[in-house]
Every structure is written in C-alpha cells, then in structure tokens.
Design a protein that fits this description.
The structure holds two protein chains of two kinds. Chain A is of the alpha/beta class. In chain A, 30% of the residues lie in helices and 25% in strands. Chain A has nine helices and ten strands. Chain A has a six-stranded mixed sheet with strand order 6-7-8-3-9-10, sandwiched between helices. A four-stranded antiparallel sheet of chain A has the order 2-1-4-5, covered by helices on one side. Chain B has a single domain, classed as ABC transporter involved in vitamin B12 uptake, BtuC (Orthogonal Bundle). The chains are: A alpha/beta, B mainly alpha. Chains A and B meet through helix 3 and helix 4 of A and helix 8, helix 9 and helix 12 of B.
Chain lengths: 257, 286
C-alpha cells in the first residue's frame, strides 16, 4: 500500500525549546489516524510541518512519495484549521461562496468560476449534509454547521488527504457523534485518508482506525483496538511494551489524559 | 445642473470622475473593511497630503515646474506610504496596527512642513482637503480613468484570491496562494484609488467613502458579491447626490458626500432592525 505521509527522524525546536524530537511516522493510504496529545505536545507544529508552513530543521517529510520541499500538488491536501483562530464570524459571505473559495488553488490564477464548479460545490455540501444552507451567510450558522462548511471547502478540490486540527472545538456535545460519523463515511465511501489532531482522547477511540500519541516524541502508533487495550491496562503501560512502540524515551510518561 | 453638465467642462469632469470614484472606493473598501484594515485608508490619505504639499512647494519655488499636477506626487507618496506600512507591519508583528499611526502622523508632519514652507494655506489647499466641484481638470479625469480600468481589471482577475485572502489568510497561505504578492498588489491599488479620490471627496474624507458604504451594505447584504454590489450602489448614490447638493448649495463636496453616506448607513441599520423584528413576529406566529 502506498504511504500518503512518511516522516523520518524529524526534529523541530522553537529557539531553545525542543518541540518535536525524533518523529517517525508512516500514514498509509486510506487510513483514519488521530494524533492525540496534551496542549503543547507539538501537535500543531507537526501539522504545520506537514502542511509546509514550517520547514523541518532536521529529518525528512514525504508527501505522496515526494520530498516536501519539492511537493507541488497541494490540491491533493485538504486542510481544516481550528476554526476559532482564523475565521471572522461577521464575514459577509454565503456558505456557497465559502465552499467555492476552496477551489481557488485548483483553478489557478486568472481563471473564472464556471457552472461545472458550482456543481462541485453542491456535491461537497451534500457530502457534509449542508446543501440546504448554501445561500445562508456563514455567520448565521452554529459552530458545528460552520465546521461542516469548512470541511466541504476542503473537499471541493477533491483531496486525497484531509487534515483536521481539533475539528470538534466549537461543536456541541450532542452533535459530535454525528460529526465523526460523517468523517467516517468520507473515509470509507470516498477513500479519503484522514488525519486529525485532538487533545480529547475520550470521544475519539471508537471512531478512528489508528491512533498516534504525541508528546515531543511519538509514544505509540498503532490500531485503535490495540491502543484501547493498552489504555485499559493503564496508560503508563502504553510506553512500557515493545509492541508497535516507536519511541524509546520512557521518562515522558503520562501523555494522554 | 443637469443642463450645466452639457455646458461646463468642469462639471463634466467632476461628474465623470465622481462616477468612477463611486465605484472604485467602495469596491476596494469591501476588501479593506472585511480585513479590518479600515484605518490604512486614513493613514494613506494623510501621506497623500504630504505629496500634494510637496508638489505645491515645488511649484512655488521652481517656476519651471509650474503646472505640475499635484495628483502625480500625491500618488507617489501614497504608494510609497503603502510600502512603508507593509514594512512596519513586518517589524511590529504583534502590534500590526502600530504601523498606521506611525505613517499617519509622519504624513501629517511632513505635509505641514511643506505647506508652511510654501506659505500655502490657501483655497487651493482647501479644495484638496475637502474636495471640490470645480477643481477636476481633464488631465485628472484621464489619470483617474486609467486608474479605474487598472483597478477593476485587477479585482476581476484576482477576485478568487482576494476573497480567500480576506476570508481566511491562514488557509490561503496553507493552500499555496501567493499571499504576499497579492496583498502587495492590493495595497498599491488602495494607494492609487486614495490619490485619485481626493480631488472629489478631499483627503480628509477619502477613507469614509471606502468604509461607510461598506458598513451600510454589510448590514443588509447576503453574501460577498451582494455586499460589493450594494457598497458600490451606496457609494455611487453618495457621490452623485453629494456633488449635486454641493453644486447647488455652494458647499465643499467632501462634506455633502460623506453626510449622504452617513444617512444611508443610518437607514440601513434601521432597515435591518425592522427586518429582524418582522422575522421574530413571523416566528412567533409560526
């Protein structure tokens, strides 16, 4: 199976503080991986490195088999950022316009939006069950609905890999389950590889296929069942066994709440 | 006045320029407002003042330069100021708004020095500060026409990119848009439009023509394209209505244009309240 992301011996530090040390991670095509870790564990930095917003200081990242500095097919990568950070709720745009903006890079400069593109926008909205809201202003929707719109924006350029940063922040507790069900459908029926980052391990373990625990080092990376089993035995055990163990630094225990 | 348009060249100039400004200022204004850069227009207009003052000074001191159109130096200063703002925003990464007062006070300071040197506190300067119905020349008209074509072309060609950059800068960068270059082109356009608008609305009130129609439009519009459309419509009504009133009542058009824009804004706020009330009532009935 082809690997979508391959990270080898990756290091990153901000000034004096090491944020990521010796990260090795392979994400195969079609998987649904959650990277979990507490605040300040380097999750966001890792995402920024994968998205090419930061340059690796040491080590390599390969996207779709290509070295990240040479990688140009960014339309294959969809990204849904932490909504609260980058979005101004008073922005006067309709849901349709927001989703259509996801085609910007794919269409390229000096090109115009055509009918067939509108069709793609509606399909993406359909996939997240938001088609009936297409003509509403984005600010009128609830947090969970807005998050679905942002996923539609990422889907509209038909990516092979979708990266989500804390996607359930701002989604009401009762809608979190249906939200994950929708992600699961995207993963299964469309074959999109999903990578999501969260600090909330409680709700995630029965929804994804693989889990990776991050806290400066990568402590565990494997299938969810295995992760759950180890979790049952007590979290410290996750770092004590050799099964699928990627990190060797046992002193960094207590990664996951 | 309608008849006057056919008789007097200065009225034709003022009106044709007004029509173009009424489109340009709110068109760029939409992007400025949604990106929370409203004050940049203010800062740049004050830098433009320094350029105008420099031009008046040169005209006075060097007789061979007489007839130099102050619009040109105004434009040079405005564009220069926009580049400085961008530089300063990079220097004060966490206090980006600091760039605005720095450039603004620098512009006024420089302007006042030039004006004093030229002994230039006269009616000519007054018309630059508050606009004028009679000061627009054929050359001004031509320059503003070229700027209009350029700006509208850029907005049409870069619409997708500008929208994405305004809505979500982080996402624009993550998806590999040339954010820096596009922002740079945009800010230069803003500088040009400010210099072009000052003949009609005046330096002190240029920024209001970029923000007030947009503020009114945002209250009632659905979606971004409609926001642009209504902003331009409101801008056009303000400029043309303001020019008419200014001509008949012998006032500076800057004042009348802005007051009409304020009136439209107030109406749109009440209109929105009325609609919300109606929706609530309908909701209660249903």
């Amino acid at each position: 199976m082809q690997s979508i992301i391959e990270i080898k011996k990756l290091f990153y530090r901000y000034e004096k503080d090491a944020v990521l040390e010796d990260i090795n991670l392979t994400i195969p095509d079609g998987s649904f991986l959650a990277i979990v870790g507490p605040n300040g564990s380097g999750k966001s930095t890792l995402l920024k490195l994968i998205l090419g917003l930061l340059k690796p200081q040491k080590g390599d990242i390969f996207l779709f088999g290509q070295e990240i500095n040479k990688f140009r097919d960014w339309q294959k990568v969809g990204y849904v950022s932490q909504k609260a950070n980058s979005f101004n709720t008073g922005f006067p745009a309709t849901v349709f316009e927001v989703v259509a903006s996801g085609l910007t890079k794919k269409l390229g400069m000096f090109t115009f939006f055509k009918k067939e593109h509108a069709q793609k926008v509606f399909e993406a909205l359909e996939a997240v069950d938001m088609k009936m809201f297409s003509n509403r202003n984005i600010g009128e929707l609830s947090g969970g609905q807005q998050q679905r719109v942002f996923i539609a924006r990422a889907l509209v350029s038909e990516p092979n890999l979708l990266i989500l940063d804390e996607p359930t922040v701002g989604v009401d507790a009762e809608n979190v389950n249906s939200f994950y069900r929708m992600l699961g459908d995207l993963n299964k029926s469309r074959g999109i590889t999903l990578l999501l980052v969260t600090h909330d391990i409680g709700t995630i373990s029965d929804k994804v296929s693989h889990v990776a625990c991050l806290n400066k080092h990568l402590h565990f990376h494997g299938e969810t069942e295995e992760f759950e089993q180890l979790r049952m035995e007590g979290m410290s055990e996750v770092y004590g066994h050799d099964v699928h163990m990627l990190a060797h630094h046992h002193e960094h225990g207590g990664v996951v709440k | 006045m309608i008849a006057g348009i056919f008789h007097y060249e200065f009225l034709q100039n003022a009106f044709l320029t007004g029509i173009m400004i009424g489109i340009l200022a709110p068109l760029l204004g939409v992007f400025i407002v949604v990106r929370r850069l409203s004050l940049i227009a203010d800062a740049l207009s004050h830098v433009t003042l320094a350029g105008i003052a420099a031009s008046l000074l040169i005209e006075r001191k060097f007789t061979m330069m007489a007839g130099l159109n102050p619009l040109y130096l105004g434009m040079v200063f405005s564009v220069g100021g926009s580049l400085f703002i961008e530089k300063l925003r990079g220097v004060y990464k966490h206090y980006q708004e600091l760039a605005i007062p720095i450039i603004m006070s620098g512009g006024i300071g420089l302007g006042v020095i030039f004006i004093s040197l030229a002994n230039g506190f006269n009616t000519d300067l007054f018309s630059y500060l508050f606009g004028s119905v009679s000061a627009v020349s054929r050359t001004d008209l031509l320059v503003i026409f070229i700027i209009s074509i350029l700006v509208i072309l850029v907005i049409i060609l870069l619409y997708k990119e500008l929208f994405l950059l305004s809505f979500d800068e982080e996402h624009a960068k993550a998806s590999g848009i040339a954010a820096k270059s596009i922002h740079f082109i945009f800010i230069v356009m803003v500088a040009l439009v400010i210099a072009a608008s000052m003949r009609i609305v005046g330096i002190l009130l240029v920024s209001s023509l970029m923000t007030l129609p947009v503020a009114a439009s945002m209250r009632i519009a659905r979606g971004f394209k409609q926001t642009i459309f209504l902003s331009v419509l409101f801008g056009e009504v303000s400029v043309l209505g303001g020019l008419f009133t200014a001509y008949y009542l012998d006032l500076a058009p800057g004042g009348t244009i802005v007051m009409i824009a304020v009136l439209i804004l107030v109406i749109s706020i009440f209109y929105k309240k009325l609609i919300l009330k109606k929706e609530v009532q309908q909701g209660e009935r249903a």
